[in-house]
Amino acid sequence: MKTMRIPLLAGREFTWPDRANSPDVAIINRKMAVRYWKIALILTAVGAYGVLSYFVTLQRREVGIRLALGATPRRIVRLVFTRGLRLGLIGVGIGVAMAIAVARGMGSMIYGIQLSVPEVLVGCSFFLLCVIGLACYLPARGARAMNPLHALRYD
């Protein structure tokens, strides 16, 4: 049985008749799964922060024009924050839908782990939305103090 160097749980040895009637399955224990999920969540958070910070930076010229035309700093922060948060909400929604679909497909492959845990999806979604909010707010806060002349020359 191929397990991609993933250790198998302790249990009885499989015999030839057992292998003949069942698909090859890598059995992952709970501790290992939690470790991989944490790494995946951190990588997702870092990626979301990078993409949204870049997205906000691309709006620098528009922010300069709005400031030059008299927009208040509070309105600039709200504009940039809501645009980034909307993009983040779409991404989290697509991610949750894909996670549910993949969990249904992998349900028979992972032994002893319940994949359809709504608390985990809600917790991870909330964490990612907090990271997305921070990724939008920090550059937006810097944009409100921006000199419109510098922003217009940025290109």
Description:
The protein has 155 residues and is mainly alpha-helical. The protein has one domain (39-152). 70% of the residues lie in helices and 0% in strands. α2 (30-58) packs antiparallel against α4 and α4 (73-106) runs antiparallel to α5. The radius of gyration is 23 Å and the shape is elongated. The relative contact order is 0.17.
The largest sheet, given as strand count, sense and whether it forms a barrel, is: none
Class inferred from helices and paired strands: mainly alpha
Low-confidence stretches: none
Q: How many H/I helical runs?
A: 6
- The beta-strand count equals 0
Query: Kindly state the mean pLDDT as a whole number?
Result: 76
Number of self-contained structural domains: 1
Give the N-to-C terminal Cα separation: 57 Å
Percent of residues in beta strands? under 5%
State the helical fraction. over 70%
| Shape, principal axes of CA atoms | elongated
**Rg over alpha carbons:** 23 Å
N-to-C SSE string, H for helix and E for strand: HHHHHH
